[in-house]
Amino acid sequence: MRRSLTLGFLVVVLLLEGGARLLAPHIPGQLLWDNQFTQDKADQIDRAGQVDVVFIGSSVVNAGIDSGFVGEESRFSSGYNAAIPSTTPSTWRVWSRDLVWPDLCPEVVVIGISIRDYNDANPGISYDLREYLPSAGRLGLYGQFSWASLEQQVGRFSTFVRIRSRLREPENVARYLVWGRTAGWPVTVLTEEGRFQGFDNNVYQVPTQAGLDQLAEGAFVNFSVGGMEDRAVRAMIEDATDLGMRVVVVRMPTLNEELSVVLPDEMADVLAFEEVIDQLGADYNIPILRYADMDDDRQFFSDLYHLNLSGTELLSRRLGSDLQRLFPEPAEHRCGIRPEEPEVAGLP
Amino acid sequence: MAFNSVQYAVLLVVVFGLYRLLRRREQNLLLLVASYVFYGFWDWRFLSLLWISTLVDFAVGKRIGSSKDPLVRKRLLQVSMAVNLGILGFFKYFGFFADSARELLETLGIQADFVTLHIVLPVGISFYTFQTMSYTIDVYRRELEPTDNLLSFAVFVAFFPQLVAGPIERAKRLLPQFLADRPKLTGADLSSGLLLIFIGLFKKVVIADALAPFVQETFETAGTAGWMQLLVAVYAFSLQIYGDFSGYSSIARGSARLFGFDLMVNFNQPYLSRNITQFWRTWHISLSTWLRDYLYIPLGGSRKGAVATQRNLMVTMLLGGLWHGAAWTFVVWGGLHGLYLVIHRRFRGRSERSETDPPRWADVPAVLLTFHLVALSWVFFRADSFAQAWDVLTGIATARHADGIPYGGLVLVVPAGLAVLFVDLVQRRTRRHEGLLQLPAFAQGLVYGAFFMAIVLFSGQEVVPFLYFQF
Questions:
Q1: Which residues in chain B are closer than 8 Å to A168, comparing Cβ atoms?
Q2: pTM, rounded to two decimals
Q3: Which of A241, A331, B258, B314 has a Cα-to-Cα distance from B390 of 20 to 30 A?
Q4: Looking at per-residue confidence, does A238 or A186 come out higher?
């Protein structure tokens, strides 16, 4: 009786484990970070080692700065685009302490800021952080428990356990096996230096009213600057300069005239943002770079604030020249040491 | 502390280990402490409400039992009702009635300026309040002798396996079990208890929690989702709530059995019902029988003619709806079921077959019709508002555009539905909730293997609270 029962149990377990082992090489691995982009970036950073320069920001920077072009115009031959899409400075600050300073150890840090990133009333801020902070990949950096880290341990013995987060989405498994991609699963459009290429071939289209409404009610709702996002950037600058890293802030180009339509106080909001950026330069004595002649020139844009490939190349080359001019000689700096605890004071 | 959490597993193992070493009185004390720890995990402050209910009903029960004066007995019962329903009313319904009154006055053009209180709903309050009230009512009716044993009574009120989501036990059934010595734990008790926990975990983790995100996403976008997605989401929620609640009851019964207690069956394969009356005899049985014994029958039941019977059914189901939650959507849900019951009562024929007889092929149309009527009512139960419920129903009824077949939902709903059907059919045919134990050993192994791997597959995600905790 007991032997038959055990046999039946083992038949199912072994069949499913065998199936998982057959399937595993054909689907992406376990997701440890809050989304696939962060996962891919964390994997790339793990491989990258030390670099000369890093670029931090949101998707605006992730698409808009190419370290290859920067390297061609400067002595900064190795660079990594550590910007993560759909985030704001509150997340960048934690991310940079978690991985960028300790693992990439750059001599120069370029913080690219777009007006899209700086709205303190953006409802996406807390969402981004809520998703990011408890992610297994992050907790694992600090030796804290998560189910995913347990999965990794057990996954050494059981492929079924290791890939179970993927198996929970059988529709995506099927789509991925057939088409090699599916919504939310890796769509490899990152260069090895971390740049997102998804906007490269886009030609600017005037946004629809519905699209503008979505922006007005989303990232730009109740627009206000000078609060927690600004404090997060300031904290990040202080973190980097404490380590002897050199910091540059780039005010990323945007289509201001069209963008002002979605801002509550229109151009007054744009000017308020510019003042806050200038204040950063004044307070920390760091260069603020603007490429204002690219503003409002649609040929360089994919949408209101993401550059296409021609915009990216132009911006990156000019940035490379400026970095070379600003920092012709290398300087001593220290690599960041990951804080002992994952909690970061002052988070919203 | 949810049943599907590591904390509960630790609590269960620790208490079980200590329990076997103790004698009855110490066992009860251990269970009481464990129950308060279990409840205090949510919010220790609300333990005071539990203590108030316990002490009031214990004292009132004793006084009723010792009094011969009908008027005194009645006054004492009223004290108990006032305290219990007062606590329930304040914590669960104050905000609802205040908001409803304000809205009503505002529609009449009167600006009402009520005090707004943000009252936190104590978890499980509806369950333990009804359970302890049943004790006092039964003592008042002389159907139960009051107990002198405060410790046993306190454990009866707070017994952790069924404290926050039932079954709502009757004192005359459960209290004597606390007063008596525990039966020796046999191998059969252990295996059936563990099997019930295992089946409950499967239903909760694999059926309910796996379907929950799809249901939530679809209901949140009910205004724009296509009809096929909405329809699949309604089926999914029907399975989710069944998996969630019957899973909880199964874990509760299994856990209690490990300590030598027999909790009542709360779900008896309700989706195999051939009509709505059978459905209510097999769905949340502890509540439906409570409402029958303490509300429907005192109202007159079916003894006062057809019209009164229909009124009593409607009143019972409307209040039953309101018991589930302080929202008009729950009232509509109860009203729909009341209507179903009234219509069924009007047209039903006489059947020789019990609601627990195994279904035949000829029953399939009736089973499907009953299931769909119930599923329709779930729309109001699940929706956050009437507008959302309306969006779901009109989306389906008008065959609103479909963006294609919702494979993402179907690949979850179809296996979940088949798994539920399999478990229910086995239980119905064997007439035992532990019916899987009667399968051939190899088949049992296959089933346990499949359940185990499914639990491994879906466990460890964010712990989804049991739906019925909110009631």
A1: 210, 457-458
A2: 0.73
A3: B314
A4: A238
